[in-house]
Fold these 4 entries.
Entry 1:
Amino acid sequence: MSVKRISQFFNPKSIAVVGASNNPMRPGYIVMRNLLQGGFNGPIMPVTPKYEAVHGVLAYADIASLPQPPDIAIICTNKATLLPLISDLAKQGCRNVIVVAAGLSDEQKTELQQHCKAQHVNLMGPNCLGLMIPHLGVNASFSHTVTRPGKVAFISQSAAVCSTILDWAQHKDIGFSYFISVGDCLDIDFGELLDFLGRDARTKAVLLYIDNLKDIRASFPQPEPPPLVNP
């Protein structure tokens, strides 16, 4: 597992929202609102051909128009547009993508997984709520509930469980170091995240919600046994 491969996910300097919207019923509206309200200090770049501005922020008609490669791109469009958008992001130098779209067939998931690998793009999702990094003011999610900084990291495959935990934590005044919705885990999985969080000084405990694991050994690799010493 490579901690370096995913480290930019958790220390972004710029974020793009592909499919940003002024329609309150769209995920792209909620993600933009959350990012702007979270206090993130870096550039937040909405990408949409439908609006000149989203939440008062100048929008870019397409990915090629972005002034710089985003460290993270949150794709809030439907599943039919994912592959060309990921190709465009890769051409711009973006290597980290969050896909919130749900309802992909097994064939579509395999195609998305292979496409991201071919484009050298790290994928979180699909079918996920997004990512929160409270100490950086990053709320790259379409959750209606926010969280405050804390010492517990939470990782979940279920977006519904994420929403439940956020509501519970807000009521109990519990914060998180990271709040990560991994969805279908087509690329970034529990093992890689645990490797990162185990080295993170802000995280004192990790809470997991797991629906299923395709490869237990890959997700939770066992340490190498110590070498035998001749007597």
Entry 2:
Amino acid sequence: MEKISAIIPTFNEEMHIEAAIQSVSFADEIIIIDSFSTDKTLEIAKKYSVRIIERAFDNFSNQKNYAIEKASNKWVVLLDSDERIEKKLQEEIISAVNSDSDFGAYWVYRRNFLLNKEIKYSGWQNDKVVRVINTDYCKYNGKLVHEEIESTKPMSFLKERIVHYTYKNFDSFISKKNKVAHLQAQELAIMNKKATLVRLLFKPIFRFINHYFLRLGFLDGFQGFFIASFYAYTIFTRYVKLWIINKGLK
């Protein structure tokens, strides 16, 4: 049987960390890579047989690659603290890593929940992430945000879905979107992109229309409106932050 390491990145995840750890209890090693949480995240995590690594956050790729390098096993399951791996997916992961296939990583589709409702539309219906990797062939590509796994071997799909509780509370949702917008602005600045008036005005509007109308977000009720609005908000914030970077302001 192949041994499996599970990696959970955290920062102030006291609400989620216990359930996240329990959902990867099938792993032979559980690593918590923490960005110096100030709540009870680590206090809760220490109740379990986990390995805790503290590292100052710089970007998502570096944070996860650092933890991957510390893993004792070549097969790694990556789990965000607001995700859950239920029994059938656990069994499928174990089967996949012990198969004779030549895949370097596996995509997993997600069931997304927001404000106590499963989201069926809004562009989230085909949401997928790479969550099982063979570290002999895989690493993150270095993007500051929306990081992606690069694999020198083919990748496949698992059938079972991972459960994703994307909303903790309003303040944390805003904070998360602001962090993402800031990192995206940094990426655009590195590419010498400019925050034009057209981008500031029209990109957020188009993003709202795309998610609420073109991707049928209106069928998700208030949650669909919430998603479309915050995608637009993130786009607007991204270009405001890029404008500030362009101007050399703080």
Entry 3:
Amino acid sequence: MNEVKSPFNDGIPSDARELAEKKAFIMSRESIVNNLVSDNARECWISLKLNPFKNESEDVSAVGHAAEKVIMSDEFKSDRWTLMPIGSAYTTAEKEDILTKDFVSRIGLGFLVMLICLIIFARSVSGVIVPFIETLLGIGTVFGFTSLINIPADGDMMSLPVLLGMALSIGYALHYINAFKMLFRQTGKRKGPCTCRNKGCNKGRPCI
């Protein structure tokens, strides 16, 4: 009957005689020689058993970025071996790197397009600055409440509230512009009727 044995259940011995016995035991297995261990015992496969993740969503990313540093470092490069990155942790880290670069470029381009649109359609300093500040405050509020209620940030969805915030600010500004144009055509005045509650006040208020 075949039996599965591990020569290092009790750890790797430090005694030379015990090491020689372990070596003889391994080399006596024909299925291992020249498959896992060379016949001169100078080369072998190394299999590492990794500990399970405590928090997979966080640990996978941390392990992947740590592996990236090892793979990219000149310290671990050699002509004697080649490091081949594999596994979900490394691919997750690569995905996050690509999404981060893509997120920054798209958001930066979106803000640029937003400012150009506001400058063209609003044609006023306040019409550009106010929607821009409104966008920043709206995005900050969304991310702030997300963090407050402990919702983890998903890289795939982070761009959505940013783009929606920019679209909202532009739409809000354009609605005000259209309302001003409509009232200006109807009344010919740049200021609407006074809405102050103080009696006797005849100050007009801006339509926008």
Entry 4:
Amino acid sequence: MLNDVKSLNEECGVFGVWGAENANYLTYLGLHSLQHRGQEGAGIVSNDGQKLRIYRNLGLLTQVFSKKENLNSLVGNSAIGHVRYSTAGENKIENVQPLLFDFTDSQIALAHNGNLTNAVTLKKELEEKGHIFKSSSDSEVLVHLIKCSNAPTFHEKMIEALNKIQGGFVYILLTKNAMIVALDSHGFRPLSIGKLENGGYVVASETCALDAVGASLIRNVQPGELITISNKGMEIDHWTTDTKLAICSMEFIYFARPDSDILGINVHSARKRMGANLAKESPAPGDIVVGVPNSSLSAASGYAEASGLPYEMGLIKNQYMGREFIQPTKELREKSVRQKLAAVKGVVREKRVILVDDSIVRGTTCAYIVQLLKDAGATEVHLRIASPRFIAAHKSVAEMNQMFGSDSLKFLSEDGLIDAIGLKADAPYSGLDMSYFNGDYPTYLYDYESKK
């Protein structure tokens, strides 16, 4: 394993609808377009103005809702949903979101994408006061803090609670009267709000999910914002004004779908520029350029265009396989890689192949793909990575090159990545969190500081 860096956030997908008769089905469609963000569990909570109803389970969205009655039972004109990839908490049903809390006087549902860096400390403090947690993830900490607050209104309780947590987070809360959205002070993960033709609102981790339900983008949620959507409309407030944009650079490199726009920047176009910058920085003696499907295809096309070499489909992916990076165990990741890719012998035979991949996170695929291409007749395989080397990599570039069996190995520079994404924000990283690559975290790690 080349990398054991812990993100400040989980890569999950969240979705919410307010003001649509078929809110349950819209949420299902939205989550389906966010399935790439989490494959371990899924769930939906609906609201009919009187009661919140939930269905959630382990597995892919289509598996969770394989019986139509499970989705049909979620009646109401508002709903929130979640697809889960876990970095904090075990993969068990109790951790599948949304989480629904039944109190004597109210119900609250919560969908969370993030990782709270002071969750261990907060959970210990709350447990000492008698609080009992339903899950082993850190997601429900916020609701416990809300219930602890003596502030007079729910809105003020939210602000007080949000100011006690640290790290990266996207929250969508659902009550009988409102859908509440909150983003951390650095905006580590993207979150967008759209509007349906009937005037209803949609909130989603990525704009591709807005497109999937026919919603038009009206704004991106900004760091520190606290937004309440109800029958009165949308009210924008802030839980803090001490903000500085540092969106996770891996959203542009790998996490997000290429048809999504993040803060006005198309993901495919950014990846294509990464490939072009990589070609300028690290040319290779090749005959063809091949991308690793699917998340590397944009970068590979950019590399080919900038280098003047033909872009070829030298690898074919089984489209019914998931993303091996987010498989929960090493064994499952390796099995996934073996089953999902095949080399096109007629394309790569007797060719010097420049193989473009988006990143090396664990290194599970690289050695296998290089050998796959050489077994198919490639005379050379030059590996080019359209992102910088991870700070937590345990091997040097030369050691990795030898381990993968590639003829050369080069990474995109940090400056090349920043230029390709092109966010117009404050220095030094133009509004990007680059901690994966240089260890410069934009926030304290608190409970994780010893692991920095």
